[in-house]
């Protein structure tokens, strides 16, 4: 029986990272819940066993129920009937299976009927689900919106909404509009406070809303009359039970067919403010988007894993010229690189997730008591590390996801172009990952400051001092040489003092940083578990050595005066 968790020991390796000791310590607050909840862990080992068991359950549901329904859901898709969305039958069955297994509200406190899990095992669940059906992953993992409501809502809102999500109700985040995609400052959905109704009323249109007919929505709307920028936007909670929002249509998409992407019409929809006015975009959406970007990174890794599985299986079975095609260098070269990208991207994803776990747990503790000076220092450190790695994790994994599905189709040859094989679905599903929740280009915008302020370089230099196995020391030396090229290229761009030149080089610098950081993470993993990661470490080192050299050559051979050659206006 397929199990998307136990079939891939790399996941359990990431789960058992040493930093989990600190994460569990912070999340469980000296295991204070054990006296009030019979499912609360007694100690660290008990907590880790609980995570492992839940991942096993999600892995089994994903490898069986969700996987079995995936093709039917892709063909059927959701239905638009009477201004409402009705999920495909397989999607409804998937949700039922996950709710019955108690897999909702995973990260929420137990007092709200949650499991009080850290972000890291929850992110693993998101990856595992996406490996079978990325579209269903969108619906199930949007429960993560509750993190933002928990972080910025008040206690009354916590008590009313969080238990509903833990019981299986769905969520959406309603941000984009016909004239406000990446530029969320342009959002114009109007929020007006009604003294008569005693609530806010929302009017306008939202577009490209994932799972748009959800039970509970977080909505970005313009609360300050006369404003046109981000300072006039606030975050609102809309409850579908209140009515006032209709689904105008479901978009007809290239992929992720099981996930309804909706255009919504708000007509005096009753809503309540989440947090403070005017902070909707400046503070709350940024937090919401960071969580969503981690989720898309997990989705990307899940799809990459599925694509690699399909490519490997086909290459082993398909014979040409008297032998299985996996024995041809042209094929095993592709498979080796796919696996290396998968392992490197996953290492980055969970390094980022662990950083998020530490700072979010300390944020939560700060709501109960004042943090000690060392705790404040720890919180700031991990918040900065998480903020730096999130755009890399989302940007690189979504690009690798697209590359891996492309290569998996190539391995299938003509069969890959046929609808008979699942790889075509993974290929179609992959394409959105580098677009939604911030395009790869916007991830570069988010990451470039950590290039210019030296944060990425500092991480590289810290990694260079880490102990690796004797067999991997030559690769570590090569990583240092790559970091030297990155440092030289960064200094060259900064010295030019030209903004257009800086912006044109930004993607190259960010990718160099990501390449070197992922290589170091893979070297660590290969030292600890050579049987899992040694091959990937060597393959990835060759790959990124060439990538870094390519980016270095591009930057160092360009001058500010040559930028105009790239302008197509």
Q: How many beta-strand elements?
A: 11
Distance between the termini: 56 Å
Q: Which structural class should the secondary elements be placed in?
A: alpha+beta
From the spread of the alpha carbons, the general shape counts as globular
Number of H/I helices: 17
Stretches where pLDDT is under 50 for at least 5 consecutive residues are none
Radius of gyration of CA atoms, rounded to a whole number: 24 Å
Beta-strand residue percentage? 5-15%
Order of helices and strands: HHHEEHHHHHEEEEEEEHEEHHHHHHHH
Q: Average pLDDT across residues?
A: 97
Roughly how much helix do the residues carry, as a percent range? 55-70%
For the biggest sheet, the summary is: 7 strands, mixed
Please, could you describe this protein's structure?
It is built from 17 helices and 11 strands. By secondary structure, it is of the alpha+beta class. Strands 3, 4, 5, 6, 7, 8 and 9 form a 7-stranded mixed sheet that branches. Strands 1-2 form a two-stranded antiparallel ribbon. It is globular and about 70 Å long. The relative contact order is 0.09.
């Amino acid at each position: 029986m397929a199990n998307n968790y136990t079939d891939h020991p790399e996941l359990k390796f990431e789960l058992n990272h040493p930093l989990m000791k600190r994460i569990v310590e912070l999340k469980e607050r000296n295991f204070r819940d054990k006296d009030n909840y019979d499912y609360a862990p007694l100690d660290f080992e008990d907590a880790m066993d609980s995570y492992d068991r839940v991942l096993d359950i999600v892995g089994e549901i994903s490898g069986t129920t969700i996987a079995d329904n995936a093709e039917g859901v892709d063909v059927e898709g959701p239905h638009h009937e009477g201004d409402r969305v009705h999920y495909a039958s397989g999607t409804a069955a998937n949700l039922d299976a996950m709710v019955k297994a108690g897999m909702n509200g995973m990260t929420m406190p137990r007092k709200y009927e949650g499991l009080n899990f850290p972000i890291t095992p929850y992110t693993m669940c998101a990856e595992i689900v996406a490996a079978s059906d990325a579209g269903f992953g969108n619906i199930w993992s949007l429960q993560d919106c509750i993190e933002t409501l928990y972080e910025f809502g008040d206690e009354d809102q916590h008590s009313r909404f969080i238990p509903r999500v833990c019981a299986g109700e769905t969520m959406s985040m309603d941000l984009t509009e016909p004239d406000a995609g990446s530029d969320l400052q342009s959002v114009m959905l109007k929020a007006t406070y009604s003294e008569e109704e005693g609530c806010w009323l929302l009017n306008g249109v939202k577009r490209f809303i994932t799972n748009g007919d959800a039970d509970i929505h977080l909505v970005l709307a313009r609360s300050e009359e006369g404003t046109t920028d981000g300072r006039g936007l606030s975050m609102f909670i809309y409850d579908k039970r209140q009515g006032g929002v209709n689904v105008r249509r479901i978009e007809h998409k290239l992929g992720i067919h099981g996930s309804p992407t909706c255009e919504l019409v708000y007509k005096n929809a009753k809503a309540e403010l989440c947090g403070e006015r005017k902070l909707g975009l400046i503070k709350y959406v940024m937090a919401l988007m960071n969580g969503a970007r981690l989720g898309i990174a997990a989705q990307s890794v899940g799809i990459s894993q599925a694509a690699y599985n399909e490519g490997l299986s086909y290459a082993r079975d398909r014979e040409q010229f008297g032998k299985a095609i996996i024995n041809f260098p042209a094929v095993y070269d592709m498979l080796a690189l796919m696996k290396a990208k998968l392992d490197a991207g996953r290492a980055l994803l969970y390094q980022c997730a662990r950083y998020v776990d530490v700072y979010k747990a300390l944020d939560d503790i700060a709501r109960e008591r004042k943090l000690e000076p060392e705790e404040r220092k720890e919180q700031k450190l991990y918040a900065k590390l998480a903020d730096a790695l999130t755009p890399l994790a989302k940007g690189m994994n979504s690009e690798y996801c697209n590359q891996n599905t492309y290569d998996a189709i190539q391995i299938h040859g003509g069969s890959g172009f046929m609808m008979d094989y699942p790889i075509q679905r993974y290929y179609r599903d992959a394409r959105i990952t580098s677009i939604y929740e911030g395009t790869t280009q916007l991830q570069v915008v988010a990451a470039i400051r950590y290039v210019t302020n030296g944060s990425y370089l500092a991480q590289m230099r810290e990694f260079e001092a880490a102990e690796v196995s004797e067999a991997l020391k030559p690769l570590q030396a090569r990583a240092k040489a790559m970091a030297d090229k990155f440092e030289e290229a960064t200094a060259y761009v900064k010295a030019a003092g030209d903004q257009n030149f800086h912006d044109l080089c930004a993607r190259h610098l960010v990718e160099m940083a990501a390449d070197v950081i992922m290589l170091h993470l893979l070297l660590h993993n290969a030292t600890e578990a050579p049987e899992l990661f040694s091959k990937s470490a060597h393959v990835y080192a060759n790959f990124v050595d060439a990538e870094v050299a390519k980016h270095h050559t591009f930057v160092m051979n360009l001058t500010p005066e040559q930028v105009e050659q790239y302008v197509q206006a």
